[in-house]
Amino acid sequence: MKKILLTFLISFSSSFAITYDEVLSIAEKNATNIKLSEKDIEKVEYQIKEAYSNIYPQVNLTGTYTRWDPNYIFGFTPKNQYSAKIGLTQKIFDYQVLNLLQLSKQNLELQKVVKQDVIQKVKDTARRLFLASLYYKQVMDIKQENLKYWEENFKYVEGKYKAGLLAKYDYMRASSQLQTAISDYQLAKANYEKSIEDLKRFLMLEDITPPEGSLEKLDIPKENQDIKNNTEIKVLISQIQTAEKQIEYQKSANYPNLSLFVNYQTNNQFKFPSTSEVWKKGYNLGLSLNWSIFDGMAKDSRVLQAKTDKSKYEIQLQDKIKQVETEIKKAKIDLQALENQLKAEEENLKVAKESMRLSTERFKANITNTLEVLESQSNYLNTQLSYISTLYQYNLRVFDLLNLYGR
Fold first, then answer.
1. pLDDT tens digits, 54-66
2. What sign for the dihedral angle of Cα 306, 311, 317, 323?
3. 72-88 confidence digits (pLDDT tens)
4. Of 327, 326, 347, nearest to 390 (Cα)?
5. What domains are there in the chain, each with its CATH number?
6. How far apart are CA 241 and CA 306, in angstroms?
7. Cβ 150 vs Cβ 181: under 8 Å
8. CA triplet 268, 270, 272: central angle to 5 degrees?
9. Angle at 186 between CA 180 and CA 188, to 5 degrees
10. CA atoms within 13 A of residue 268's CA, in its CB half-sphere
11. CA 381/CA 95 separation, integer angstroms
12. N or C: which end of the chain has fewer CB within 10 A?
């Protein structure tokens, strides 16, 4: 992945400009969605601790005080009655608890895979924003170069006009074109500044030093990549595994559970046949077997629901695999078409640049008028913008392909 990304070939004019790797690192550190995913993992870890509590001994302490109405009691019941009890319960066998632990652990693995998917999406968004900032910067640079050309042209035309060598119409056209170039540059600058604001917002930073350099064509990922590295496919696979654990958990409700209990208790009472008050103390212990023989088919219904959920995930997985395979094929088709378009536009760019140079020289030699200059410069500008736009779209499709491969 790093080798492919390094082919971005960003030529930095300032060592303080934010780099591609820094953007990815900051995004993974500050992204809200990643932080929320980490909290989901933390929550599941606490749920695992809660599940383990079912296999530990349970100790309960109970104390009561009862004040009886003398008109209500008789015999050997104290008017002020006290009792205390401490009990310990230990599960000896509970198959559902064991399956609950397995389900909780699988759910933790699912959340970790979900986090990988979130990181992938954050990384993909970060690199697209980084690419967009470079694209809008290059558009701004092209518009600035165009502005400089029309500023020089206007000075030249103005000097010729004042010397009486050019008509007022030529002067007005040069002035109009200069104002258009200024407006285009200001718009391009605004778009670039907005792209930087989008990057800052996503990185959760107050300020950054904008990236420097220009767009370069990215390398296409190698063939025969395993689509199961796609993070969305990984999530669905993990969801199926979790659903399988859920089925086993629901099935385990059909098994009996066995527990050991030990109680020690004390209470006050009158000692027969006297009326003196004494405290009775003692313990009891035993085994408790609980087995739900019939619950109105509730357990079976929960098992069927869990199986249905698993079937839904399996259907979604097959659909996602087909979708990813189709998107990969479409991305490759687009990249091939864009590759051919780039080659054609590279040639068009050379022709447009030479045409602009020749028309400018002819105009200065009074062989042609400003209309030809205007057309040639406009054609050169549009060819530059078309080329950089195609290159931008090409790189975006490479990012699409990387994302589909889970890279």
1. 888 899 999 999 8
2. negative
3. 776 677 888 899 999 99
4. 347
5. 2-61+93-257+295-404 (1.20.1600.10)
6. 12
7. yes
8. 140
9. 100
10. 13
11. 74
12. N
